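Predicting holo structure, magnesium ion bound.
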Amino acid sequence: MKQSMLFSPTLREVPSDAEVRSHQLLLRAGFMRQNASGIYSFLPMGLRVLQKVEQIIREEMENAGAVELLMPALQPAELWQDSGRWYSYGPELMRMRDRHEREFALGATHEEVITSLVRDEVKSYKKLPLTLYQIQTKFRDEKRPRFGLLRGREFLMKDAYSFHDSQESLGDVYDKMYAAYSNVFRRCGLNFRAVIADSGAMGGKDTHEFMVLSDIGEDTIAYSDTSSYAANIEMAPVAATYEKSGEPLNGLEKTATPDQKSIEEVSGFLGLTAAQCIKSMVFRVDDKFVLVLVRGDHEVNDIKVKNLYGASVVELASAEEVQDLLGCAVGSLGPIGVADKVEVIADHAVEAVVNGCCGANEEGFHYVNVNPDRDFTVSQYTDLRFIQEGDASPDGQGTIRFARGIEVGHVFKLGTRYSEAMGATYLDENGRTQPMIMGCYGIGVSRTVAAVAEQFNDENGLKWPVAVAPFHVHLIPVNMKTDVQRETAETLYTSLRGQGFEVLLDDRQERPGVKFADSDLFGIPVRVTVGKKAEEGIVEVKVRETGEIAEIPVSELHTYIA
Ligand code: ATP
Ligand code: MG
Ligand code: MG
Ligand code: MG
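Done. Tokens:
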């Protein structure tokens, strides 16, 4: 491609609202532009990177036996009502009405659409297993869209869904997907780690996240310093069951009287450290209250817990819906997992228990008439425990360390959660009706682009790994007005492309300083500069990654950069 035709407006200044390197550089290099909070246009250079990542994903999906399809982003509310998520998903789900006042959702994910699709077409075990995927725009009205592509409200996801007639079959595809995901992120050049997504279920094999290691990651990973054990502790729950022994919790008043209990006392009561008691949630399961404490950095908790509060306007939620909200695997929440119905008690009561049991999160306030020893007695702790830095690894090998991670992929054994709710059944070998067993597998495609940018840059700009680079070679004639330079560059442009290289030719009449600065921002892996020595048949090759420079005869260029 000729750069004079490219639309890639570069910026010399760092955009003021961009906090992290990837966001700043993708804007500065003209790879993307913001349209509204969390909503972006991919400009041609950014699109090329996005398409490279997509291509890698497509190849790995095909290897794993998944077949591509494309489902609609606009989805009728009825589907979401059938699964129950219309009521439990909360404000993150973008909802709208058509001209006939019919309700729709903009797809945040596609379990409902695919389950109804497969339900209507697949009736026999002979058609299973079936694994389908798409690469498509998703919509989530994130409370805090930020860091550019890393947390958008409109973003590109690869989502795959598998359908099975046995747990073994699901396990088989799950393992293939796990391997495919490892390949995708390795091929993108990322430094990542696959982690147990729900560390509450120790050693759980039902859900893993792929985390790119980065200080700006919003998740905290606990990993063993010697073994492969790694878990996301962002949402690690500790559940304790409380039996109500006092007056009902309704009608509590807020007073300005400082709470008598210090957070240390309270956390001591719960057998946890103060840091572990930052946030908590309370559910009533039958006649019991279940307190779920969430640990992590305060900011992250804030988002998640608020989401949950947002959903507490729903009076009755199924155990699974609550687990959906918490983002935990089925069964990992102990008491919640076994209850048929979980009543999410009103916000003020939740806060009351938070304050009463876990220390006030609003200074100077507490709720009267709530006293852990009087109103509640601890009847049972589940064996779910937080992991601390320095703890022995749960697999018995090594010591736990913490790191920050960006979630780029997530694989999940869904089981029959959707097929049962939506009636997706098949006839087994004996002619009996069975619910399909499902798995789902997501990759944040646009987030992956940003994660690569986050890991590969320097003070001058981006440094794309070859596999996802927008072009392989940036060809820069220093002075387009010098015939020999222009002609050498044009000859090389044709011949390199003939050899299969993707080449960007900077044919602009710009000053060399401008060309080089733009080139550093773009981060194309190899730069070929055609300058004065072109007369002697020599060009300069610079490797963006290492900064290594060499003068190479034109005749040897292909072999040198191959
Ligand atoms: P997060 O914990 O970051 O909110 P999630 O767990 O809600 O992500 P999933 O439902 O697991 O996300 O979706 C699959 C993948 O989609 C994620 O692993 C992530 O890579 C990507 N993704 C999710 N939300 C966003 C977003 N707002 N912007 C960009 N990518 C996203
Ligand atoms: Mg999310
Ligand atoms: Mg997540
Ligand atoms: Mg996830």
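The first strand starts at residue 32 and ends at 36.
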